[in-house]
Design brief:
The protein has 214 residues and is mainly alpha-helical. Helix content is 68%, strand content 0%. The protein is flat, with a radius of gyration of 20 Å. It starts with a helix and ends with a helix.
């Protein structure tokens, strides 16, 4: 197999579920590919460029088959599903949200995806500026929520996951902090799909109220 940027990045993504982002080293990656670590640096100067290449592959998966909204489809339904798809894509990989966060994606699909998203919101009544400010709020919510969600899976705690509602409730003085003790089940709710959807709808409602008053 000819070594190139895409092959290296796909191999790295394949290793994520076993070792996580912190365990993913250029040395380990080179061993998996059957080459010397120095060979990787002909294609990627450092680990950040590796993460950029990995995120580009993830983004291309996300954009595969992306189409404009159907006639009459509400902007919130289309944009909301786009945000859900971002989360689903990140959840496919251990630490997928950490890989995706803050990376630079120099791919031709990115402008098309952004154009469809902005056009959908502008057609719904947003100004171009408000759409450009509003959608990143949803995007950053998806990335941030998923980073927390994946951290709370406990994969990095070697079987001793502290993120349990019962443990929080037991460690909180209910007399001093009654609301915290009462809310433990919601603060660390294992039904993360429900929690994500609640937050998504709050943000969409806020965008409607702020930018679509007329």
């Amino acid at each position: 197999m000819k070594l190139n940027r895409e092959v290296i990045a796909k191999t790295a993504l394949g290793l994520l579920n076993d070792v996580g982002l912190d365990g993913l080293t250029m040395r380990l990656l080179a061993k998996e590919l059957g080459v010397q670590a120095a060979a990787l640096y002909w294609h990627l100067k450092n680990k950040q460029q590796l993460l950029d290449a990995m995120a580009a592959i993830m983004f291309n998966e996300l954009s595969d088959g992306l189409e404009a909204p159907r006639k009459g489809e509400d902007w919130a339904d289309w944009v909301g599903e786009r945000v859900r798809a971002i989360r689903r894509m990140m959840l496919k990989y251990r630490d997928g949200a950490r890989v995706f966060a803050g990376t630079y994606i120099a791919e031709s699909e990115l402008p098309r995806s952004l154009e469809l998203t902005l056009a959908t919101m502008v057609d719904a009544g947003f100004s171009a500026r408000d759409a450009a400010r509003g959608f990143p709020v949803l995007y950053h919510y998806a990335v941030g929520f998923t980073i927390e969600e994946q951290a709370r899976s406990g994969a990095d705690y070697a079987g001793d996951n502290p993120y349990h509602a019962n443990e929080l409730a037991e460690n909180v003085d209910a007399e001093r902090f009654p609301l915290t003790a009462q809310a433990a089940g919601d603060l660390f709710d294992a039904r993360t799909d429900d929690g994500f959807e609640d937050g998504l709808q709050v943000i969409i409602a806020g965008l409607r109220a702020r930018y679509l008053r007329t």
